[in-house]
């Protein structure tokens, strides 16, 4: 694989529409042709994956499968056991719906776009999905099953959680020393 001096992976090797400068939109016909290298390039722009080396990015990308949803289709359903982790890496928009207190009607609370993900927190804590997510238009995303999530993504999130706790402890110690 050719190296790019800025991020290690040369996207020109993987993009189907290599003439497209920002690679933000894919042709509908291209969705099924997505390769791990292309996903790795895209994953590099997601905060939780920015620090991963190229090999780890490719391992993560290899574990995703592409899934398409028609407008109105449910991606995840509130109350269903979380068993997949979804990324909107390719194209599409989805609405996130939740119920309000004393009201069982689903209300849209926000919109997910490219590079947003669904189910990470729920699958991390081994619980039911906390929202219903529906495609607002044709949507192409990637998904990863629970087993691969636990093997590849959970350690990344646990590392982030650990670093946040270490930082909080450090800041508390700094504040205590100032008051002594």
TrEMBL record:
InterPro entries: cNMP-bd_dom, cNMP-bd_dom_sf, RmlC-like_jellyroll
Domain spans labelled Cyclic nucleotide-binding: 48-170
Residue ranges the record marks as coiled coil: none
Protein name: Cyclic nucleotide-binding domain-containing protein
Lineage: Eukaryota, Metazoa, Spiralia, Gnathifera, Rotifera
